[in-house]
Write a structure and sequence with these properties.
The mean pLDDT is 94. The protein is mainly alpha-helical. Helix content is 71%, strand content 9%. The longest helix is centred in the N-terminal third of the chain and has 23 residues. The protein has one domain: Winged helix-like DNA-binding domain superfamily/Winged helix DNA-binding domain (Arc Repressor Mutant, subunit A). The radius of gyration is 17 Å and the shape is globular.
Length: 139
């Protein structure tokens, strides 16, 4: 296998997983990009927009659009920091109330997608992926 085949297969897998996630979130009016922000805020707490961009490896313009959509849906709010240029993003009470429904839909989809994949392979893939992500951070 050459590196082109490897990266192509990773890209194809990512596209398919994103498609499945979007299908699972559709009844809630959410997309995968929005879920990424909501999940990150739920697990990490209030963050600046820059911190979200850095953590999710997303450029500022698409992150701004995603956050604006989430504000319109009343799922996040922006709080001005001490520095006028800093905006903190946090989940609203509405988002915290509905979050378990979103999470259940995502978990159900995850289980459907991975149920045929042996647990030992899942663990190995997770370790390889995390190792690769950590090595990329050093480059």
């Amino acid at each position: 296998m050459n590196s082109h085949d490897l990266f192509h297969s990773i890209h194809q897998l990512t596209r398919q997983l994103t498609k499945k996630l979007n299908e699972a979130l559709e009844p809630y009016g959410l997309y995968s990009a929005q879920w990424s922000v909501l999940y990150t805020l739920k697990t990490k707490g209030t963050l600046t927009q820059r911190q979200l961009c850095d953590y999710l490896a997303v450029e500022a313009p698409p992150m701004t659009r995603t956050i604006q959509r989430l504000i319109k849906q009343d799922y996040v709010t922006q709080v001005q920091g001490d520095d006028r240029r800093t905006k903190y993003i946090k989940l609203t009470k509405k988002a915290l109330q509905v979050y378990p429904e979103w999470e259940n839909a995502v978990i159900k989809m995850n289980e459907q997608v991975i149920n045929h994949f042996p647990l030992s392979s899942q663990e190995q893939y997770c370790k390889l992926t995390l190792d690769w992500l950590h090595s990329l951070e050093k480059i």
